[in-house]
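Posting this for the archive.
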Amino acid sequence: MIAKIKEFVGDVSKEMKKVSWPTRAQLKESTTIVVVTTLIFTAFIYLIDWVMNLAIGFVF
């Protein structure tokens, strides 16, 4: 059991060395894109909700 755990940790270590990590600039750019996209979708969903709420309020 211990041998399998050691083998697993060794394999994970080897694979992590193959990973292509983003630079700080790439990470900032990706984070900005995610935050802006989230804000846009949030505003869109809020707008749809507001319009639907008005429409339902008008009907009833």
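The longest helix spans residues 24-59. The chain has a mean pLDDT of 96.
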